[in-house]
Amino acid sequence: MPARDSVRKDVIGYFLAMHRVVALVRPVQSTFELGCGAEVFGTPRDGVPQYYEFEVCTENPGPVPTSAGYAMHVSNGLSKLATADTVLIPGWLPVETPLSPKVRRALLNAHERGARLVTICSGVFALAQTGLLDGRTATTHWARAEQLRRDFPAVHVEPDVLYVDHGDVATSAGAGAGIDLCLHLVRQDHGAAHAALVSRHMVMPTHREGGQVQYAPPQASANTLDGLLDWAGERLGTPLSVEDLAARLRISPRTLARRFADQLGTSPGAWLLSRRVAEARRLLEETDLPVDAIAVRVGLASAVNLRRRFRAQVGTTPGAYRRAFRIG
Prior knowledge:
Blueprint: H1 2-16, E1 19-25, H2 31-41, E2 52-58, E3 62-65, E4 71-74, E5 86-90, H3 101-112, E6 116-120, H4 124-128, E7 137-138, H5 145-151, E8 156-157, E9 163-165, E10 169-172, H6 175-190, H7 192-201, H8 228-233, H9 242-249, H10 253-264, H11 268-286, H12 291-297, H13 303-314, H14 318-325
Parallel strand pairs: 1-2, 1-5, 5-6, 6-10, 7-8
Antiparallel strand pairs: 3-4, 9-10
Helix pairs in contact: 2-6, 6-7, 11-13, 11-14, 12-13
């Protein structure tokens, strides 16, 4: 009998400890962004303790169209948010869609009673409408950062980070960064070892700090500045200087600086360094070259210099970047 009582207490304790995550979806729902939360919080895995219950709700229960071209049936209404420990908003498209009074009230009530509100990518546009982000930092996909800043001037937009966690509210960048944020929350809730176990089953990097940049691809500029950028890009391994760039166009360094500022919004030196780091990123992703060899190839001379410049621009080390983004 004592053994049976012990088992019963363990089972009761297990269910009492379950953390309820409820995703709020709307037409047209992104299946991938919803899947990010479902994979981390709602997928049972052999040998991995299940600490979360994952459910989905919507303002008007019934069929909800998705971005994949099919409709999913959602039977739960907004009342589910009243018992959620974490409310997840996995995208909000179009981002201009206003919150209905019912949704706004449900989100604010959930926050007031202590629920954690979390957004993935464009979901921040819904959360921002509640006013809960006013005076705080937040992020979203780099392509929508300027619109977020324009539409919600009281929000301090951080366009280059993966996620921002304030404890009661948290926002993430693009959908992939949503997985990083969800794993970060697991780490906060149940420790690094459990988060590492979940990420290993998902074949994901164990942990990426929220302060890392979003790794947005460098924008193409093939014909800008009379072909100078292409010319310089082909010679990154040489000791190019601002004077060399100016000489190529047969203009003075001061004139070159003005043209860079007008056309690219940066200086020649800053552009050149950014281009070297971008090439280093590509080589880290696509080759097995040692870091010191990559440094020489992109014109940064030494591994020490590359690490310093790389961390300043990318927010992490070359080694950590390679582990996270190595192709093949």
